[in-house]
Amino acid sequence: MTLRCDKQTVGKRLLAAFREAGAEEVAPDILLPAESLLDLYGEDIRARAYVTSDPIRGEMMLRPDFTVPVVQAHMENGAEPARYCYLGEVFRKQDMGDTRPETPRDNEYLQAGFELFSHETGADAEVFALFYRLLSPYGARAETGDMGLLLDAVRGLPLPAPRRDALLHHIWRAGRFQQLLIRFSAETRPRDFPQSAASWTGLRSATEMQARIDRLQADAGSPPLPAVWTERLKRLFAVRAPASEAVVMLRELALEWPEIAGAVERIAIRFDKIARAGVAPEQVVFDASHGRTTMEYYDGFTFSFMAGDRGWPPIASGGRYDALTSVLGKGRRIPAVGGIIRPGLLAELEAA
Predict the structure, then answer these.
(1) 4 is in an annotated binding site
(2) Please, which pLDDT band fits residue 192 given cuts at 50, 70 and 90?
(3) Of 12, 154, 163, 331, whose CA is between 20 and 30 Å from 102?
């Protein structure tokens, strides 16, 4: 019980800091309609969230995060700039593949969060600097990335649109992305689909199956991706250094890869703004692969704060999610950036 009081105390302290930064406190429902979450995440969310059925409201989920309901509420009623903060429980199923006893995998844990909807160019720096000031007393290590850089890199590959779209779709799934990259880098041969009197469509219609066959046959004629591009991707994904050094590395790569030049300059400008907000860039790591496996709806700047070498998940994480506002806003799009902190982990650090 003492630990829970500590969590709440830390959470309320964070919430007060967010309010002082100009945020309006909101309290989204704990039970959310499953439809929007399934549309956003796909069926994979069922493996991580708690799903139930209501005879009137239909399929529902215990709140897996705050960002989606906050964005939905803002897109319906909000004007920008707008700042929101919240404190409450989220619910996630245990990861059965991780059996390390030192890794916290609570089914239910407390989140404190801050979301900023704004067209202002300094929004990323504002949110990051706020989190940095709150977490630096804990000795947290700051790491950042930029999904926009990776998305621009893939868009710049000399590939047919269907192959490029497949890589973009799986960029957050590193294993699947690598499998596709290997396949697209090799020669492909037309496949033979012999006629059969037996049923061959399964649960799909014959029209759907024929369309799939046509796509596979068309793809078989695509030339392989030249090795120079896989090498450039490898170099890009491997960039990890203090921010000032990373920008130099990225600018050198952009000389060979003009399609990423715009993203690289946006990253450089962002770190200039972060420095003006009081955070020294040499204290911040830039990792080009940051966020690829854990931050699926972020499409720009990403960040996380780690607690040393404890093997914990990030004590805080966040980033830019402009595309999410377009999906949930039914075409209306507002630039947005935010993040969450886990007060329970901060309480453990305070008690250590």
Answers:
(1) no
(2) low
(3) 12
